Amino acid sequence: LDKELMTESSLFNPLADIKVKVQSSFMVSLGEFQGKAPGSFPQGTPRPFGSMQGRSKALFIQSLASISSSSQLRSTALFGHLGGRLVIPNTGVSLLIPHGAIPEESSWEIYLAITQKESSLEPEGPEVLLGPEVSCGPPELAPSSPCALSIPHCAHADPQHWSIHLKRRTQQGKWEEVMSVEEETTSCYCLLDPYACHILLNSFGTYALIGEPLSDCAVRQLKVAVFGCLSCNSLDYNLRVYCVDNTPCAFQEVVSDERLQGGQLLEEPKLLHFKGNTCSLQISVLDVPPFLWRIKPFTACQEVPFSRVWRGSPRPLLGAFSLERFSPATTQLCCTVSVRQLQGHEQLLHVQTSVLE
């Protein structure tokens, strides 16, 4: 879980099966930055405005204030002519500013934010949102060379089954299509890998990845995980099964929520391939030890409609189960959680835990 989806090397040395849609001159520019300033990678620590001009500072504050204060997924840092890299920890979202993008003897305060919960983008027709809505800015600032924005996605990006587009929010609040990742454009270039899209941008703003399924075989990759904790009634133990987009930022939200509730991760999360075949998702608890535990009535199996899973949800999708032990002396719980799509893929999560830990 601590691994970062994109390292510096992955951007400059793509795997053989990755489609590269980036002009060589831009890659050379970013490569020079990596060679000249290997240590200038700010890690999202807020810094003073320093020598920023008053107007730039005011624009920054105004732009940052437009992002909902309820979102904690943001980073800010001060950058100069050498450039640097701004990341939102544990989310897979980052912004790489190359050497020379900022004028000499200047310093810019740059922000990067995820606005997934308050997303204003409403996909049209069969389109679905494949990752978080990401803002970088202030949008009034214009770097002299392209910056690389990395946005994680949850699609099994097969061009036979998906048409993936990049959209940008205009100053009027409307969304417009910037490009398709399968086509060249003169205003934007991108590199799509199995877990993220790395986009070279000439201007800051708010961006999102949209996918249109081309067949029933289009796959949305979900991460499934099970958490547990004792309830107020000490004889009951609660299991919460999450199915979220396979992006670090989506799972980070689950981890944060569970930390507040005292939940513990009971099994390594697994990947579920959810197909666009209109079949629903079924979550079940199996193999509960008889005479030691019982599932509260009508909760052994829960079904989630296809549309709710496929189109995503602003809140993490979960199935909640309550298990009751017959005796306080029972401290061990062993069972299996099944998460499967009808006529599709299934994952089994094996729970073996001490409920008193």
From TrEMBL:
<feature type="domain" description="ZU5">
    <location>
        <begin position="73"/>
        <end position="213"/>
    </location>
</feature>
<dbReference type="GO" id="GO:0016020">
    <property type="term" value="C:membrane"/>
</dbReference>
<dbReference type="InterPro" id="IPR037936">
    <property type="entry name" value="UNC5A-D"/>
</dbReference>
<dbReference type="InterPro" id="IPR033772">
    <property type="entry name" value="UPA"/>
</dbReference>
<dbReference type="GO" id="GO:0007411">
    <property type="term" value="P:axon guidance"/>
</dbReference>
<dbReference type="GO" id="GO:0005042">
    <property type="term" value="F:netrin receptor activity"/>
</dbReference>
<protein>
    <submittedName>
        <fullName>UNC5D protein</fullName>
    </submittedName>
</protein>
<dbReference type="Pfam" id="PF17217">
    <property type="entry name" value="UPA"/>
</dbReference>
<dbReference type="Pfam" id="PF00791">
    <property type="entry name" value="ZU5"/>
</dbReference>
<dbReference type="InterPro" id="IPR000906">
    <property type="entry name" value="ZU5_dom"/>
</dbReference>
